[in-house]
Amino acid sequence: MNYDLILKEIHKEIQPLYNEGKVASYIPALKNINPKQFAMSIQLFDGTSFHIGNYNQQFSIQSISKVFTFTLALHLYGKDLYKNVGHEPSGDPFNSLVQLEYENGIPRNPFINAGALVTTDLLINKYKDETFEKVLAFIQEISNNKDIVYDKEVASSEEQTGYMNFALLNMMKSYKNISNDIKEVAQTYFKHCSISMSTNELSRAMLFLANHGTDPLSKKEFITQSQAKRINSLMLTCGHYDASGDFAFKVGLPGKSGVGGGIVAIIPNLMAISVYSPQLNKNGNSLIGTKALELFTTKTGLSIF
Amino acid sequence: MNYDLILKEIHKEIQPLYNEGKVASYIPALKNINPKQFAMSIQLFDGTSFHIGNYNQQFSIQSISKVFTFTLALHLYGKDLYKNVGHEPSGDPFNSLVQLEYENGIPRNPFINAGALVTTDLLINKYKDETFEKVLAFIQEISNNKDIVYDKEVASSEEQTGYMNFALLNMMKSYKNISNDIKEVAQTYFKHCSISMSTNELSRAMLFLANHGTDPLSKKEFITQSQAKRINSLMLTCGHYDASGDFAFKVGLPGKSGVGGGIVAIIPNLMAISVYSPQLNKNGNSLIGTKALELFTTKTGLSIF
Amino acid sequence: MNYDLILKEIHKEIQPLYNEGKVASYIPALKNINPKQFAMSIQLFDGTSFHIGNYNQQFSIQSISKVFTFTLALHLYGKDLYKNVGHEPSGDPFNSLVQLEYENGIPRNPFINAGALVTTDLLINKYKDETFEKVLAFIQEISNNKDIVYDKEVASSEEQTGYMNFALLNMMKSYKNISNDIKEVAQTYFKHCSISMSTNELSRAMLFLANHGTDPLSKKEFITQSQAKRINSLMLTCGHYDASGDFAFKVGLPGKSGVGGGIVAIIPNLMAISVYSPQLNKNGNSLIGTKALELFTTKTGLSIF
Amino acid sequence: MNYDLILKEIHKEIQPLYNEGKVASYIPALKNINPKQFAMSIQLFDGTSFHIGNYNQQFSIQSISKVFTFTLALHLYGKDLYKNVGHEPSGDPFNSLVQLEYENGIPRNPFINAGALVTTDLLINKYKDETFEKVLAFIQEISNNKDIVYDKEVASSEEQTGYMNFALLNMMKSYKNISNDIKEVAQTYFKHCSISMSTNELSRAMLFLANHGTDPLSKKEFITQSQAKRINSLMLTCGHYDASGDFAFKVGLPGKSGVGGGIVAIIPNLMAISVYSPQLNKNGNSLIGTKALELFTTKTGLSIF
């Protein structure tokens, strides 16, 4: 397939959408980003990659980090993880305290904020005050790239305004589903979210999930085949907040979005993909990014369905 | 792959589970079924099929009928259908009125009861008092089998005890999301649910969904490729009530279960599968059926993830 | 106190409010009522009464009937009643199914629709197909007036459009909190609601509740002192749907409103009051009626607080 | 009436209840209190008072402080207060985040935790870092007692374990219904709750609310007559969390309870009452205290209904 051509077509077709969508405003440090950006990267198993747009432009990965922290926690805890966090779609907006209250502080899944906070808390149980460094090292390793860092200004901005995340942490603590100090969990979580990566780097980082848990280039097995299957199914059913069904419907790939404007997706046995465009639709997912992926599976017929 | 051998292994491995699970008790006519039954059928594109157990034993398809009525409604209405019924996971038990009330009578998706009742109402708009006959004829056509009928005793039993479905209908009527007479919608819906089929017949009926909407044997196109993709994604995200995430996690295939004990599933571009075993797990899905499908994707590596 | 003068002052002061509020539109037979009506009646223990406006104009008592059916059920069942219906404020709009679902079909109190339907069901257990006649006879007795009847057109209009009430009945039936046939319970309930009375008649009917359960004129004891106390406290905490707190706040009397535009209230040991004005505020209570009662307790200092 | 005799009778009749109920365990500093205590005080307008039990034993007033902070806030803000906090019963357990989320961070009423936190925040707007001192001075003034202080150990214990209150604060901050620093609001609130008073002191402090806002002994007007009416109606409809309806039903007086085991109540135009007994019923109200008040209104016929 001529991926270069397909990417060029997509780039052309998304142009009329630049005036729709809105950059996330609730994280002050993200508000001033140039809204009219687009990048898309494809990473194949043989090392070949295809790109369009500013594919080396780094942006805040935000909730995409949830895939990486969940991967690490699943590797460390195995099925025990499901005592503290579920794996069902939430069917409610991404910050909802309601479901959490009715379910006694056990979040529905690790891809909503509450679930990712629990995952972070579990990582702190193991790694203590080296937790963030371990997470960053893991992301550097799957990306084969030692230069990935986090943006201190974004992390600090999130900490100062992240009242809903503090509400979630306090509530789960009252249900005894958070073990560590609330401030420590929050700071670690905000650092993960503030890691900066480009679509080039993200598509490389996701490659092992497209290949049953083993990086096809370095041949390193990061997780088992069975665990990779579970992470991918979770991305499909829960990867896009309240629009997960819609994303499965339109794009038909396991994927995860972040409010920074990035989306990652994988096609099992074939490739990893990443897109970036900071303007969001009403569900908090990159508007142009979602459209670009929809065009990609339509043009290539590579939906998993 | 040696499907005969795989089915035999599965048959053996599910034996210890016969004492777990419970036959659905809320439909009186289903209560007295022999609980210790198992059947599994695989249908390939070239007409070959593989079976184990009582694969010609007919049972009540119940909610599996929601796949067929949704298919027909999508064929008739296209995207207009989404004005009346959504396509997001519900994240709540299958009869929940709560979400429906907060969302003004628009059901989350067509695979929960409320959504299937709306779908039935929309079919009645088009087919009037021939609706059930049209649905049955459609199922006969995709199954290539004129002998499929419904069980009057089960339908009448459901009508006499289906208070929650009547509650849903009345509530949606108050929100003007039901156009026709409540009793007529209910009776038509209960007839669909009471259709009797075997795993042999169900796997044949589902074949067009594994092949982008076109029956690979008769070459008839029942729906478009794009619509087939959408139905399959919906089965994956919403096909098993409050355990949809768990099914995607463990089995990794688009599928739909019914409280009669049946499950259907498809592997895109390859096959349709059906299992039957009447004892249900706590989420209302066939306990042995779910396990059999999990064993099948594990043994064959044919999960879509 | 010069009640005649006070009523005249109130009549004058409510004039500017005739253009606010809206007549209830969801019961077709009530829609065409002249909106600009007002009446107010005061009934003292010595038989004296004071009136203003069209105090002999009959109107649909609607939810005011809930006070009478609850009184009768409390008389028949005593504390056993609380197995089927609670006595706490609902804190939610008057038709809400949500709370009912979370509380397994036991309504919060007898003054929301669900609770009054359960009360009616319990009366049918005792009085069988004479239930409505018994309720009507009870109202005639406490009113000392054999001429009170119900409006067939209103009852039939409610039955044809009362989908939410049918939803509530079906849902509670599924939780086994309704024993009788749904249609019979609904028809009996709609008849109660459709009883026509004037403010003159209603203030007379409520007199026993102002006097510890015994009619001060006929000396008949309809309920015990303790039961009267309970009914009055319920009217205060739950008598005005989602605005019960506001009514207690502003008026400070036990009272009950109906969407027909009537309100009844009592001042313990002193009097019964009734007002009528068909235009409703956003909470479904008579806008001018509520204001008139607020003016009355302000002018007389007769709030219970 | 012979109040001495009535108090003695009550004291005798509550004896068999000492083994029911449970001391609040979620505030560590309260856990070790002697559970078998009882005190009751009556304060009349002429300065006469009647007591039974350890009526000079001080205990943590906890949520009773909400009456005092609301009184002060109503005095300062008048009706503007209702922009930030409602006056309807909550119909949900006292810590519920659910209703708060559906209602955009505006608490139902000032007597649930969320509402009292908002009230505290509003007081801080006016009194800055002197807020707690001003509240304490106000309580000392209405009590005519300069010796009232708070218990530092209890306040600090609450701050260290009050995760749910921090969750509420963070959530309301995210809805912009908290203006000040979360830690400051929390510390001020926990200090109010940790004020120690005896039934003797509490019944004296409540006297102005029984007399339309003016202390009948010192003749000082603390709030207007209209405001006193509103506070009393709020105590009746919302004073006992999820058992407010039950308290109105059984006791029939405006009152407010605290998890420390105290309850205050007033009889308009006549007296203020306070009871203490630390074992709580399932709704978090003093079990013996509630019973004692029920016996009191039954014996004296002084229910407001």
Average pLDDT level of chain A = 94
Largest sheet of chain A: 5 strands, antiparallel
- Given as residue ranges, the uncertain stretches of chain A (5+ residues, pLDDT < 50) are none
**Biggest interchain interface, per-side counts:** A-B, 34 and 34 residues
Task: Provide a count of the helices of chain A.
Answer: 13
**CATH topology (level 3) name of the largest domain in chain A:** Beta-lactamase
Named at the architecture level, the CATH assignment of the largest domain in chain A is 3-Layer(aba) Sandwich
Strand order of the main beta sheet of chain A, please?
A: 3-2-8-7-6
Assembly annotation: homotetramer
In total, the number of domains of chain A comes to 2
Can you give the helix content of chain A as a percent range?
40-55%
**What's the count of strands of chain A?**
9
Kindly provide the name of the CATH class of the largest domain in chain A. Alpha Beta
Strand percentage of chain A lies at 5-15%
Shape of chain A: globular
Which class of secondary structure composition applies to the elements of chain A?
alpha+beta
Distance between the amino and carboxyl termini of chain A: 19 Å
SSE string of chain A, helices as H and strands as E? HEEEEHHHHHHHEHHHHEEEEH
Going by CATH, what is the homologous superfamily of the largest domain in chain A?
DD-peptidase/beta-lactamase superfamily
